[in-house]
Each structure stands twice: as C-alpha cells, then as structure tokens.
Amino acid sequence: MNATSAVVPPQASTPVLTQADGAIYRIVLNRPDARNPLGAETVDALDCALAEGEANPDIRVILITANGPAFSAGGNLGNIGERLAAPPDADGNDPIALGNRRYGRFLERLVATPKMTVVAAQGAAMGGGAGLLCAADLAIGVPEAPIGFPEVSIGLVPAQILPFVASRIGLQQARRMMLTGERIDGNQAYRIGLLDYLAASVQTLPATIDAVLDRCLTAAPGAAAATKQMLQGLFGLDAWHQRDLTAYLDAASQTFAKQMRTEAIEGIAAAKGRRPAAWHALAAHSDSRDAKCGPPRGSSQP
Q1: In the structure, what pLDDT confidence band is assigned to residue 283 with cuts at 50, 70 and 90?
Q2: Which of 100, 177, 205, 296 sits between 20 and 30 A of 185, alpha carbons compared?
C-alpha cells in the first residue's frame, strides 16, 4: 500500500473527501483554509463517509487524514452569534446541545465500527481534532504538531470527546490536559499513549502510514472485528458502550450548551481579541520568583 500514490485530490467545495483504495477507505478533512473545523457540515459528511466505508465489504481499514498544514482546530466557533440566537426546535431542545451531540454520535459510531480505524495527523490537532485521534483504533502523528484540549480556557467543556480521551490516555493524563489546557507536542503525545506511532517528520508521515496500513492488513478481517468486539466487552465496558456512554454524552451536550451561553461568550471574545479572558489571573508568587513548574510526566524535557 502506497499512501503517497493514493492521495485524494483536493476539491475546494467539499468538506470531506473519500476514496476506496483497495482494502483501505480514505477519508480526508478538506477545509485547510479554516484549519479543518468540525462544524455541522463536516461532521455530517464524516458520518456519511464512515457509513459508506462500513457498507463496503471490500474495505478492511478506514483511514482519516487531512489536507493543509493543520489536522483540525476542533469545533467551529466562528458563528457563535448565530448559534446563540437560534431558537429551540419543535420539541424544545437546545440547538447548541443538539449541534454538540452530533459529533459525539459520530465518535460513538467510529469506535463501534467492526472495521479497523486509523487516524493520522500531519499538523495541529486541537479539541475535537485531538478527540478524533483518541477515538481511533490506531493514531499516528508527527513530532512537531501540537495537540491539546483548550476548551476550558475559553469557557467551554470537552463534552463529547472526554470519554474517548480518558479511555486512550487514562483519567489522570486527561485530567491534566483538559483542566490546564496544556498543549503537548507529538513526542509527548507518543510517550503518554495518545499516539501509537510517531513519524520522524511530516515528510516521512506517508511512509509511516503505509507501514501501519500494511500491518493492519495482515490481520484476518473476521478476527480483527471479533477482537475489537471482545475488547469493548472487557471489564463491563459492553454496558458502557451500549447504554451508559450515550446517556453520558447526552448530558454532556447540555453542559456544553450551558457553558456556551455563559462563560464562553467572554472566552471566545477574548480569544478573538487576543486578550486574556476576564477570569484569567496569575497565581500569587512566593519569594522564590524564579521557581517554575517542573515538566509534566511524559515530557521530553530533562
């Protein structure tokens, strides 16, 4: 399998590109001008693409990549005014919660598919973009690409991605990254298990993708699907995936909507204005003014 010879040609008007390439189904985020945001149109296109890949009996691996310098900046916050003004639907549901829940449903489907899934990030993966890496069976990245969850710094919560992040890197690493909004590079992400494979550089990423895909295709498709199902049933996780996860994400979408209508108004305005948010404060320092935090566990720093 040659990743470089099977690149899907870009089309400016299409948020997601797809291509069946033998046993590989390629899905490409295609809004590089906007850093591939995960708005409603893109998420719906991702969901349709995943369904197409699942329905094709020849497909054994679903690969998600992106065009442009960034993998994905996460949710689209450019239209916050319109979202805040949108009325409830006919059943009285908050449209912000419904929009947030849309991405969670896609992630639920992604982790449940019997096909093997691989996500490869060639650039920055933030918020929902980092969550997409965490939801994949196998995640690939590069050393120089930042990864982080900046939601709390703008008054939001990582509502739909939190369970998938915690499942991949563990509760404490998720707690650290999500509560501090800290950004890490690919080297650190690889050390804490957020990435399974680390290419030497962006230039060598296609070769790394090829090698991972080749390794995936050595697995018998029925055995791989059965193993995925067995893994989901470990430690009582079958009940979590079949019932509790959906309820959790439903409730999380309501929390997201509440935050969008309160603190996030200031947080997003501050981010757009390149100024600190109103709640931003510096800790009171002791006399040891030069003291600094040590590197977090998993850091490449000495």
Answers
A1: confident
A2: 100
The CATH superfamily label for domain 4-222+229-272 reads 2-enoyl-CoA Hydratase; Chain A, domain 1 (3.90.226.10)
Q: Where are the domains of the chain?
A: 4-222+229-272
Q: Which two tokens stand for residue 9?
A: 């040609």
pLDDT band at 23 (very low <50, low <70, confident <90, very high): very high
**Residue 75 exposed, middle or buried by CB count within 10 Å (0-12, 13-18, 19+):** buried
